[in-house]
Amino acid sequence: MSECLKYQKPNKTCMIYAIISHNIDFVTFLMNNYNLKIDLEYCVKYKNLESFLVYFDQTNDINMCFVQSLKHNISSLCEYFLSHGAKINEEYYGMTPLFYAAMYNSKETAEVLISNGANINEKDERGSTPLFYAAANNSKETAEVLISHGANINEKDERGRTALFSAAKYNSKETAEVLISHGANINEKDNFGNTAFYYAVKRKSKEIVKLLISNGANINENYNNGKSALHHASEHNNKEIVEILISNGANINEKDNFGNTALYYAAKQKSKEIVKLLISNGANINENYYNGKSVLHIAIKQNNKEIVEILISNGANINEKDNFGNTDLYYAFKQNNKEIVELFISHGANINEKFKHGKSALHIASENDNKEIVELLISHGANINEKDNFGNTALYYATKHNNKNMVELLISHGANINEKTKYGKSTLYIAAEHNNKEIAELLISHGANINEKDNFGNTALHISASKNSKKTAKVLISNGANINENNNNGKSALHHAAENNSKEMAELLISHGANINEKDNFGNTALYYATKYNNKNMVELLISHGANINEKD
């Protein structure tokens, strides 16, 4: 009381404190002097019958008090309200009184209601009967009363579920036993194709799972998307239920509609103990799933070294390829997981294996700028100058992705700087194409051939001009690039600059002696291409530097 009086004016909180403490004098005081309503739910929760009776005495609200009285499980109180006009089949908040008796396991009260004409199979707005509520709240005694008076055990709600479903979902073992002993259909399916057993597994109701199995539940039943109970238990990391299912004959290698087994889901959810349990009971480690990927791939994708170790130690094929021609080692590189890569190598994985487009592990690690993995591969004998189907080396990918430190590392281990791609492109050409000045300088300092040509006769300077890579072009020119070198079509770097409207490049080339009126094999000058592509600024620049405007092709 003293706590409540700290408030300037007593409020609802004060009334709640008074009910909780069973201080009937204060409850009456607050109700009479401050018009504060007695909260009947708190009266039920804290078993304060006296405050409940004060409420009734003050309000004479028979119907409200009738419903609340059921929660106190006092049959004489129920009889009193019925004798004073309480309506037995009237709905209160969507439910008749019998629902409340079932919910609060008020056996004696339920008997009074039934003997006075309560409708046993009455349904609420969701189609549930009082028996559903008894099952959900494990009100065993009340369930027995309802059944003994004709409650329909296999009645379905709007979702096609019976009372047994409610017992399974809420782990009401004792009530489930009552329902089963009176003929509940164990393998009945709801509108979604699920059984009570499915919900028991999903809710991790271990005792209900055992009970249903002992009474004939089909443990290999397939549910939504073809998943079995074992799939669900594995997916939700429920080891105890997985053990129960396996010990009762669950099909360990059963596949769902996506082709996945329980082992797949256990690995995906990083359920180490379930993975071990499934393997020890015969799960197929090398089963292929979507696109030919194995469970090992799933563990790698989750960066789960422990499960990868378990799988490998139990015979997982580390060199198996998926539908794209990639092994699990490939995916370990893609994840940049050094520890898993080391694990694969220590178990004999082929580090020079070719994957999609002929790429090796070293190509991928270089592309992803993973220095540690590249060093690891090289130390185990990876071919540093290996080419993929396009003639690209690891150095090519490091250069293309502007990974300077990787370029230095590969060069220090003997990467061939002047190696060419399928199209004749050198590494320096790639650096120029991506305007990476620092890598260009690095390559040149290690002996890159500045005037090397691709299959079309283009040099690094040609591509710099096309891409307007001014910074890289300066490096090339300062290191002896031939400004007037022609490609297979007789085009110079200036032709390319004019054609691609690379004004800054054109200025740079002209300032270093580019022949403005040079003609290609078709008799065209740089001015011709600038005009052809409507590059007005380029036209003005070329004319200002002496381009012959009357030149004919």
Feature tags:
mainly alpha, 34 helices
Describe the structure concisely.
The protein is mainly alpha-helical.
Describe the structure.
Helices cover 51% and strands 0% of the residues. With 553 residues, the chain is mostly helical. It is built from 34 helices and no strands.
Number of helices: 34
Q: What oligomeric state do the depicted chains represent?
A: single chain
Which class do the helix and strand fractions yield?
mainly alpha
* Beta-strand segment tally: 0
Separation, N- and C-terminal Cα atoms: 107 Å
| Backbone shape | elongated
Main sheet record? none
The whole-number mean of residue pLDDT values reads: 91
Our estimate of the beta-strand percent is: under 5%
Helical content stands at 40-55%
Taking pLDDT < 50 over at least 5 consecutive residues as the criterion, the unreliable ranges are none
Radius of gyration of CA atoms, rounded to a whole number: 41 Å
Domain DUF3447: 1-55
Keywords: ANK repeat, Repeat
Pfam families: Ank_2, Ank_3, Ank_4, DUF3447
Protein name: Ankyrin repeat protein, putative
Task: Please write out the topology.
Elements: H1 12-20, H2 24-34, H3 40-45, H4 49-59, H5 62-70, H6 75-83, H7 97-103, H8 107-115, H9 130-136, H10 140-148, H11 163-169, H12 173-181, H13 196-202, H14 206-214, H15 229-235, H16 239-247, H17 262-268, H18 272-280, H19 295-301, H20 305-313, H21 328-334, H22 338-346, H23 361-367, H24 371-379, H25 394-400, H26 404-412, H27 427-433, H28 437-445, H29 460-467, H30 470-478, H31 493-499, H32 503-511, H33 526-532, H34 536-544
